[in-house]
Design brief:
34% of the residues lie in helices and 24% in strands. It is of the alpha/beta class. It has a five-stranded mixed sheet with strand order 6-7-10-8-9, sandwiched between helices. The structure holds S-adenosylmethionine.
Length: 249
């Protein structure tokens, strides 16, 4: 019976961005839960397996594949995400009930506390199964973005907003700095009448990393063309950007 689950922040997918604590935990564990999406060749599944294999070349562990469903893309977004998380929790309950190992690890992209539902999902599983949780923080995409562009995200007395494209849609004018995760709606187009600087990064911290920065109005056409091309070629895009009122930086 499972007694403890570690949610391990794996950074952007390269072992060099794992913390020492994450490495120590991965090294001691003998069981890893690997989420797989039905019928999909998943880059994230492969990355998880690759990282574990690199940290544990002696292969003294077992991978337990968890068949997670796809999220329904129709209906109310919040309701569908809730239902999706509940169905994932249900699947985990069934799998973990039968597990004989006492401890298991679950690698989460970047940091488990930033735009990721696994912490809530495991808390839901805990309502039925008696195990403890430990979260191991990881390096998030936005930290790599700021490091690579060599910028400070915060200013003295300033506010930094973190959001998604659904969140940034609520703004008409940007007064503060804002970090946006994945912008499939190309929301940055809404702000070209403002004097803003963009610091953009795709596949940050990986060999495919691309960085772009400049006045939003000037560099946006290049960013949009590039992200569309990359999305088509690779099937997905990992992008994060910072928008900042220009007088600030
Ligand atoms: C579901 S969120 C998870 C974020 C993750 N927990 C973190 O801390 O980075 C996934 C989004 O994070 C952003 N992201 C994650 N890794 C990235 C990377 N290496 N480069 C650029 N953006 C990344 C992308 O916007 C991606 O769609």
């Amino acid at each position: 019976m499972i007694e403890k689950i570690y949610l391990i922040g794996m950074g952007p997918g390269d072992v060099k961005y794992l913390t020492l604590e994450a490495v120590e935990v991965i090294r001691k564990l003998k069981l890893f839960l690997i989420p797989v999406k039905a019928g999909k060749k998943e880059a994230l599944t492969l990355k998880r397996k690759e990282i574990i294999a690199q940290i544990k070349p002696e292969k003294d562990y077992r991978l337990l594949e968890i068949p997670f469903p796809e999220r329904k893309r129709t209906g109310s977004y919040k309701k569908e995400v809730k239902k999706w998380r509940e169905s994932k929790a249900q699947i985990l309950k069934e799998v973990l009930k039968k597990e004989t190992e006492k401890e298991g690890g679950f690698l989460v992209w970047g940091d488990p506390s930033i735009y990721d539902g696994h912490l809530e999902i495991f808390k839901e599983v805990q309502k039925e199964l008696n195990f403890s949780l430990e979260v191991i923080p990881g390096i998030s995409a936005f930290q790599i973005l700021s490091a690579k562009h060599q910028i400070s995200l915060t200013e003295i007395g300033g506010t930094l907003i973190f959001t998604t494209p659904r969140g940034i849609k609520k703004f008409t004018q940007l007064q503060d700095r804002i970090v946006v995760f994945l912008d499939n709606y190309e929301t940055y187009k809404n702000f070209t009448s403002q004097n803003l600087k963009i610091y953009w990064g795709a596949y940050l911290g990986t060999p495919e990393e691309i960085l772009f920065s400049g006045n939003l109005k000037e560099v946006l056409p290049q960013i949009i063309e590039l992200r569309r091309k990359l999305r088509k070629e690779k099937g997905f895009i990992m992008e994060t950007y910072l928008l900042s009122p220009i007088s600030e930086l």
